[in-house]
Design goal:
The complex is a heterotrimer of chains A (309), B (288) and C (465).
Chain A lengths: L1 H44 L4 E3 L4 E3 L3 H8 L1 H33 L5 H9 L6 H12 L5 H8 L16 H26 L3 H9 L4 H30 L2 H6 L11 H10 L10 H32 L1
Antiparallel strand pairs in A: 1-2
Chain B lengths: L1 H39 L4 H6 L12 H9 L2 H32 L5 H13 L7 H10 L7 H10 L1 H14 L2 H9 L4 H12 L1 H17 L2 H6 L9 H6 L11 H27 L10
Chain C lengths: L1 H36 L9 E7 L5 H14 L4 E7 L4 H10 L6 E3 L4 H4 L9 H5 L2 H7 L11 E2 L2 E2 L3 E5 L3 E5 H6 L9 H15 L4 E3 L6 H4 L1 H7 L5 E2 L4 E2 L5 H12 L10 H9 L3 E6 L2 H9 L7 E5 L11 E2 L1 E8 L6 H11 L2 H9 L8 H6 L17 E2 L14 H10 L4 H21 L5 E3 L14 E3 L2
Parallel strand pairs in C: 1-2, 1-3, 8-11, 13-15
Antiparallel strand pairs in C: 3-14, 4-5, 6-14, 7-11, 7-12, 9-10, 16-17
Classes of the chains: A mainly alpha (309), B mainly alpha (288), C alpha/beta (465).
């Protein structure tokens, strides 16, 4: 009797202080959301029906909407974004998962390897862009020199100036820059798996590959969902590295959504056109919607898969 | 039995060697561009700009580093960068673990809506335009000349990813632990502090590392907030200012030297935290 | 436990740094406040005039002269220079919005954004009362409609200029292919480049282009001297059809594999030129300094020539870029003292020393006569030609899609058909212009007596439809 009453009292007092604690613990995040995300968004949002060049704003009604619907450059960039995201994800997820698993083994030098694989993420985009510009150069580029020296190709490949190859080049740069990141996520996820599970797998006589597919992968599944979602949204938002490497070229072949929006909002030098923050704001909203829809589809599909598997 | 074990281990040995070779090969490919930066920082500007396959300089110019250090006021900039990065790290870790915990363990009205908002703003990317309203806000609050607002904005803008991660991880921690803690008399917050947090070590280390890097690499925000205040500039801004604009050529070799110097602290932090990625969860936490 | 200690250590570090930052912030804030709004508040009546510039390449000279001024001037003025190389105009706008704008902006800013909104003030009153200033700087002669003056209001006066585009060439490579000078006709120019490339057999090429605004550096200027411009001043609309011939010729550089296969950043291409990878490069007078001191050319002799035109004859002016101008912000609390600083920056002594260091070309006849030409090194090769001038600024429009420089270069590269590109540009630009004029955002510029060889001497009228 007494114990139950005590428990009940603890429960209610827990609930009350719990509520206060909940609120307090969540408040910084909410504050950040309001100030850093919602406020700037609303500030920009009010210009979507105007022409705003950073200094003066002119209300233009639905003209921005009409422009957007007729803007072939924009819709082309949307297509390219999907293309880029697809290529990037297809390679980087399995690769970083593989590396994470390998690095988790007790092989000599894993600490050094981990450091090396992580290094690309430290280099700033501007500098990485220049280096890869050197690597991908047609005439005196490093990649071409190596490939020709190994007799894999006869004549230099136009990595950056050919419309059919440029997507491969930016994908390579993306993988190089992002591998360390996703490897880190996967490593964390793998280390979250209870070691007992591995023990029982070993007792059951599973070899490395079986362990991976029957034990690691399923146990990673919740974490994997998270990582995939981050990867998808990340890939859709990538633009800085592309901007430095190809600036959307050649002929807008590698133009992705957010690169086009960036140019609109900051204006391109010369050429008598100016920054168009209003139109850029509208496009940002559209781009966000697109990413949102993709994410929603992904979440839906992954939930369905959960039910099946 | 002995025989099969022997055969097995030779197979494993060969496999392990192959794996090791693969990792070395891959590491060489990955690290090559980084090496290019480091070697390039010793080159004369004209030699660096040509590019090509020679990563080794013809002449090693140490003056690049001297000039980068002096001209770029490196000591001050490094301290500022550290301040910024550590600030972002601390704020991010505390904020995201708390929020992730609440989202995972608590039900309240509008929770999914609120969470949806967080996720939504994760990919609503207005980019650097958001600087303008935030800068004006900071001016009104009279804090526009320091890096403090940059810390909060950087942590605040990137919080969604980390909250997302934390929620996922806390979800995977069995609720029985919470119950056990409650029975032992822990409040909601104490459960967080004593029980959940220690189990979040791997993800905390990840967030710490990533948020440190985020703060370390911030460029445009500190640029704006330290417009006229050279004393507060971090490395990213300082190094970039070495570019000669207008009618000249940019001093890429000095920028490379600056970039190389900037890599060192990041690597140190990474080494510091990487131990935590290996620490698995203690077995039997629930049973015991 | 170790982790906890590390954590608390870091926390302590952050807090200490934070406190020191806050503390120091206070003092720098105070100092900032005194600096910005000083004048009467300090003991010695020192006024600090803040100047922002985008130029770093001349900072050695400028800083030295500033120090000299700070020590010797009798007006109690202290000049403080801030170099902002990235995003110059945006930073200025941000500073103005935040109330921390400088007193003087050195380096021209766009009038439609800075003058029309009242951020900078007209300088006519100051100019009219200073005869020496007028003699040295010829402000009314060098007032270009839409560029630095509007409706008779002069917002800033230029004291230097960058020449129009010139061809820089590798004399050795040219001689090896049998050439000694730059042809005047574009077609001959292309043939020459081709010969050099053929002779180079894969090692060296005839010409190189950069990825950074390539159209502007050669073909657009060839078009200008052939009398082709993208804005039709007589009728007040955009017209790109004149570029057709130039584009067809320009395409040959790419389709016949004449050009160096990579188009990298400007600095990279300069370095490759200095190494002798290709024979022809084109850019303006800043190359004098670049190839002398920054990326020195030591392996061969390099020459400077004029940009070729379609027919070999000059039918239009070549665009030059005036520079080194100073504007006063309306938010400045010491406009008179700021003007004194400007008088110093644009005094004969200052400009003479500046020009003789080879940083820029003189913009007035007076200064041209005063300076010692032997000191300016290769810059002498870039001296003003008689057909160089400044084109009036066409109205700025809100454009959807790529601007003309990107699109026309895409046409040269073969990614889009020439006729298609021209038609697309005409449509988009004029649609935007019509819409913007209709909404009142901009006015249509018409110069009925426009003469391509003297573009800035016509009478400009602004229409509202």
């Amino acid at each position: 009797m007494n114990i139950t009453r005590k428990k009940n009292i603890i429960k209610t007092s827990h609930k009350k202080s719990g509520n206060i604690a909940t609120f307090l613990m969540l408040s910084p995040a909410i504050l950040f959301l309001l100030v850093c995300s919602i406020y700037p968004f609303l500030w920009i949002f009010r210009y979507i029906a105007s022409d705003y060049n950073g200094f003066t704003a002119n209300f233009t009604g639905t003209r921005n909407l009409v422009r957007m619907l007729n803007d072939s450059t924009f819709w082309g960039s949307v297509l390219h974004t999907f293309e880029y995201a697809f290529y990037k994800l297809i390679f980087i997820i399995p690769l970083s998962l593989l590396m994470a698993v390998l690095l988790n083994q007790k092989i000599k030098g894993t600490v050094l390897f981990r450091g090396i694989y992580f290094m690309p993420t430290i280099i700033s985009t501007a500098i990485a862009g220049m280096i890869f510009g050197f690597i991908f150069a047609t005439q005196n580029g490093i990649l071409n020199s190596v490939l020709m020296a190994m007799n894999i190709i006869d004549s230099p490949i136009k990595w950056l100036s050919s419309q059919s190859i440029v997507m491969a080049s930016i994908t390579i740069l993306a993988i190089w820059g992002g591998l360390g990141n996703y490897m880190l996520y996967f490593l964390t996820g793998i280390n979250g798996i209870n070691e007992d599970v591995y023990e029982s797998a070993k007792i059951d006589g599973a070899n490395a590959i079986q362990t991976f597919f029957r034990v690691t992968l399923p146990m990673l599944s919740p974490v994997m969902k998270v990582i995939l979602m981050l990867a998808i949204t990340g890939a859709f938002k990538d633009y800085e590295a592309i901007m430095v490497l190809t600036n959307g070229g050649p002929g807008n072949r590698s133009n992705v959504m957010f690169l086009y929006i960036y140019r609109l909002i900051f204006g391109s030098s010369g050429g008598t056109s100016q920054a168009q923050i209003g139109y850029g704001a509208l496009l940002s909203v559209v781009a966000a919607l697109i990413v949102g829809i993709v994410t929603a589809i992904y979440l839906y599909v992954s939930r369905k898969l959960d039910d099946v598997v | 039995m002995e025989r099969s074990q022997n055969v097995f281990s030779i197979q494993t040995k060969i496999l392990r060697i192959f794996i090791w070779l693969f990792m070395v090969f891959f590491a060489v490919i990955v690290v090559f561009p980084v090496l290019y930066v480091i070697f390039g920082s010793f080159k004369v500007n004209a030699e660096l700009l040509v590019g090509g396959s020679n990563i080794f300089p013809e002449k090693w110019i140490l003056a690049n580093y001297v000039e980068a250090w002096n001209q770029a006021n490196f000591a001050t900039y490094t301290i500022n960068s550290l301040f910024l990065a550590v600030g972002v790290m601390v704020v991010s870790v505390i904020n995201s673990t708390m929020a992730g915990y609440v989202f995972s363990r608590r039900e309240f009205r509008g929770k999914e809506l609120l969470y949806g908002l967080f996720i939504m703003f994760m990919f609503i990317n207005v980019g650097s335009v958001s600087l303008r309203p935030l800068f004006e806000l900071a001016v009104k609050l009279k804090i526009n000349q320091s890096l403090l607002p940059v810390i909060f904005i950087s942590a605040g803008a990137g919080q969604a990813t980390f909250i997302f991660l934390c929620r996922g991880f806390v979800n995977s921690i069995p609720k029985e632990l919470d119950e056990a803690a409650k029975i032992d008399g822990c409040s909601f917050f104490e459960t967080y502090y004593r029980v959940i947090l220690p189990m979040l070590k791997p993800v905390m280390a990840t967030i710490a590392l990533l948020s440190f890097r985020q703060g370390w690499n911030e460029y445009i925000m500190p640029l704006v907030f330290t417009m006229t205040n050279d004393e507060r500039r971090p490395l990213t801004v300082g190094v970039n200012m070495l570019k000669n604009m207008g009618d000249g050529t940019a001093a890429w070799n000095i920028m490379f030297a600056g970039a190389t110097i900037s890599i060192v602290p990041m690597l140190v932090i990474y080494m510091l935290f990487s131990k935590n990625f290996m620490g698995g969860m203690t077995a039997g936490a629930v049973k015991g | 436990m170790k982790r906890k200690r590390l954590f608390s250590l870091l926390l302590a570090l952050v807090l200490t740094l934070g406190l020191t930052a806050c503390g120091e912030n206070q003092t720098s804030e105070e100092q900032g406040a005194t600096n910005q709004k000083s004048g009467e508040a300090t003991t010695e009546e020192i006024t600090t005039i803040e100047v922002w510039t985008q130029d770093r390449h001349d900072s050695e000279y400028v800083q030295a002269k500033i120090e000299e001024y700070n020590e010797t001037n009798t007006d109690g003025i202290l000049i403080s220079l801030n170099v902002v190389t990235d995003d110059y105009e945006n930073m200025l706008a941000l500073a103005y919005a935040g109330g921390t704008a400088p007193d003087i902006a050195s380096t021209p800013v766009a009038l439609n954004t800075f003058a029309d909104t009242g951020m900078i003030i007209p300088l006519n009153e100051y100019i009219d009362s200073d005869e020496t200033y007028q003699k040295v700087n010829a402000p009314y002669k060098n007032a270009y409609e839409g560029l630095n003056s509007k409706d008779g209001n002069i917002y800033y006066v230029y004291s230097g200029m960058r020449s129009g585009v010139r061809v820089q060439y590798n004399k050795t490579l040219l001689e090896e292919a049998g050439y000694t000078e730059i042809p005047e006709k574009l077609e001959d120019y292309i043939e020459m480049a081709k010969d050099i490339t053929v002779k180079g057999s894969g090692e060296t090429f005839g010409i190189g282009f950069t990825s950074s605004s390539p159209f502007e550096r050669l073909l657009e200027m060839s078009a200008q001297v052939s009398g082709v411009y993208y804005y039709d001043y007589v009728n007040g609309r955009y017209d790109f059809s004149g570029y057709k011939d130039i584009l067809e010729l320009g395409q040959r550089f790419i389709s016949e594999d004449i050009a160096y296969p990579d188009q990298q950043g400007v600095d990279n291409m300069r370095a490759l030129f200095a190494q002798g990878e290709f024979a022809l490069w084109s850019n303006a007078s800043q190359e004098a300094g670049v190839f002398t001191s920054q990326i020195p050319i030591t392996d061969f002799e390099w020459g400077v020539g004029t940009v070729p035109s379609l027919t070999g004859e000059v039918n239009g002016a070549l665009q030059t870029n005036p520079s080194k101008a100073y504007a006063i912000f309306s938010s400045s609390e010491h406009k008179d003292k700021a003007w004194k600083v400007i008088q110093y920056f644009q005094s004969e002594e200052f400009i003479k020393g500046y020009l003789e260091e080879g940083y820029s070309l003189p913009i007035t006849q007076y200064m041209d006569g005063v300076i010692d030409k032997t000191k300016i090194g290769r810059l002498a090769d870039f001296s003003l030609l008689e057909y160089e001038s400044v084109y009036p600024t066409p109205p700025t429009v809100n454009l959807t899609g790529d601007n003309y420089r990107i699109l026309l270069w895409n046409a040269v590269m073969g990614h889009i058909g020439i006729d298609e590109a021209i038609e697309d540009l005409n449509k988009r630009y004029n649609d935007a212009l019509d819409a913007d004029v209709a909404s009142g955002a901009v006015k249509r510029l018409v110069i009925s007596d426009y003469d391509p060889l003297n573009p800035s001497e016509g009478t400009a009228t602004y229409l509202t439809e």
